[in-house]
Amino acid sequence: MRLTIPAFEVDEDDGFKNDLLGRKEFGESLKNIALRSDDELVIGLDGAWGEGKTTFIKMWMGLLKQDDIPHH
User: Where do the structural domains in the chain lie, given as residue ranges?
Assistant: First the structure.
């Protein structure tokens, strides 16, 4: 028997809509740091494989889009 976990889907318009791990607060804090900075920023996320770095970035980009904040 083989078990598979369905892929997690991030809502592009509301990135933290399905946030089961409570990461929205961290995303909001990171957004506020970026908005208050007078200089351009480089932000790095450190974590082991499979800890959700890419998923967090996708969710955070949805938050930025929702707030009409330019990002790339």
Answer: 24-66
Q: What are residue 59's phi and psi, to 5 degrees? A: -65, -40
pTM: 0.78
Output the CA–CA distances (angstroms, integers) from residue 43 to 2, 16, 27, 56, 63, in the order listed.
38, 19, 12, 13, 16
Q: Please, what is the end-to-end C-alpha distance for the chain in angstroms? A: 42
| Each residue's pLDDT expressed in tens, for the chain with a length of 72 residues | 888 877 778 887 788 988 888 999 999 999 999 889 888 888 899 999 989 899 999 999 988 888 887 776
